[in-house]
Structures are given as structure tokens and as C-alpha cells.
Amino acid sequence: MSAIQPKILTWARETAGISRDEAARALGLTSARGKTPVQRLEAMELGEEEPTRPILVKMSKAYRRPLIAFYLAEPPRQGDRGQDFRTLPGKEQFNPELDALVRDIKARQGLIRSMLEDDAAPLDFIGSATMEEPVNDLAARMAERLEFSLARFRDTKNPNEAFVYLRERIEASGVYVLLLGNLGSHHTNMPVDVFRGFALADDIAPLVVINDQDARTAWSFTAIHEVVHLWLGQTGISGEDGENTIEQYCNAVAGELLVPASELRLFAPTPHKSIRAIATSIAGFAEERRVSRPMVAYKL
Fold first, then answer.
1. Do 18 and 166 fall into the same domain?
2. Are residues 190 and 99 in the same domain?
């Protein structure tokens, strides 16, 4: 392989949001040749010292980059993901596989749009909502527009069949739904801590992507969550634990549509129950409603 380009080392550390002090500690660098650990890392990033293979392996782990990325000639260009809903502003994380996936998704969406735009009428619900709209109102409006029956959803045999029904309703409204969690091989599988869903708001060919590496019981919630982003007119990536107000609002609407708050009041774990007993009750409650246990716990 070619020599390591110093600017790649700087790019990998900075896009991981790690300072030189933090990186030197994470890499286990020690003082050598009259240089402190931080000075040694700086020398590597300036091209004055060549990182060894073991140090590169440690960088790969600490910076959350595939090892091959350190042998690039230039830092890769970050793809336009739209908004990054996974973290608070200023804490966005770069991931080359995710950017490649976003480019693939946008290419697919572009092909669909090019086939539809001459004949299809714009979808009126894209961007029709704001976060000032009460959660209950938007959930009801979406259910009506999707012609979604909660009873029909729950009458399915399992969460997979429930998702199939929900997907049919979403696609009947004009939204394309993809299950996609890698770049075409299991070697590029992306866990949910990289991304859980993606929404591309377009009034001709809107599209949502669900990470199929996630549990099947979570697919329906993610699908509705991403459709809420479309109603808000937002393109972007959602993660496992949304910290910002937008994600909390989308979670609330999706939760209200699949498990109305009125039902949660029927489920009231009493304080004297053990954690195991409460977990068992949550599992049964979730299974009956074809949703995931974490979703019920989140709403509770």
C-alpha cells in the first residue's frame, strides 16, 4: 500500500470530533525521542513521523474509520445528507460508508423522479406540517391520508406482516419505502448507531429508507418516524437516540399513531412490581400491538 498522507490522519481525527490530547491517550502513545505523546501525534499529522501499522489499527478503532481509509490519497468528500437529526448541531459524525449509501439512495430517487415528473402531480402533504401542530392532530391527519387502520395493523400474524401492511399504505400515498442497510454486501452492514432511517422530502418522488440491520419489530416505528419528516418537509438522517427537538416530535407522532396515549393509560406498571415483571408486561403489551419493546418503554 502507498505511504500514509499526513492530512488523512488529521482529517480522520478531526471528523471524529477528537482533540489531539484525547487521541494521544486513546492511542496509548508514550513519550519517545524527546517528544510527548501529543507532540508525537502532531509530528505524524505533519508528516514528520510515520505511523506504524499497530498505531494505524488503533486509529481505525479510536476514530471509527475502516483501516483502508487511512491509505486514501485525499480526504473523501462528505455527501450531502440533508439534515443530520442523529445528534445535536455541531456534533455531526462523518462516515464514508453512510455517505456512499446516501449517494446511492439519491441516485435511485433521481431515476424515479425523472420517470414521474412529466405526468405526476405534486404530493400535497409533503411539507404540509410544522412542529407547532399538536402531536395528536398530525397523527390523526396522517392516519387518514394513509388510510391506515390500526386494527388491521394489529390483526397481522407478526411484526413483519404488520410492517408489510404499513409499507403498502405508505407507498399507496406516493412515498417510496426502501429497506437498505449496506452497500450491497454484508461486509458493509451499518448498525443502527450509524443510522436508523433516512427521509428524502420531494413532492414528486419522496422516499424513506429503513436500516434493515435493525430489529424487524422496529421497522414500522422507523417508517412512520421518517414519514413524519416528509410531512415536515425535511430531508435527513435519523439515528438510534434522537437528542434534538425534531426527533422527539417525530417520535411522539409515530408513537401516537401506533400506540395512542389513551392505551398507555391502561398499561400502568405498579411500583411494587419487580423490574423483571414490568419487562414481561411491556413485552406482552408490545407484542399484541406489533411494535418493539423499546418503543413502548420510550413512550412510558
1. no
2. yes
